[in-house]
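Sequence only, no structure available. Ideas?
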Amino acid sequence: MAVTDSARDEIRALRDQVNQLMEDRVSPALSDAGRRASEAAHRARVYTEDQADAVADRVRDQPLIAIGVAAAVGFLFGRFTK
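Reply:
I predicted one. Tokens follow.
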């Protein structure tokens, strides 16, 4: 039984070491990666909203040009998809 108890003790010690490594190294790394991904998504959303606002402003300022560009893009799209 001493061999079995010794093996259990070693397995318990290894499990404790793995848990400690997870807490010390892996969890903070995952937390940091999640934080950076969240920040990048926020920056992308703000950028997209800013660009959409800029396009909307430009269309309001120059509606005839916007209609002409839309018509040209529609025409080209129609020609290339036939």
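The first helix runs from residue 2 to 61.
Hope that gets you unstuck.
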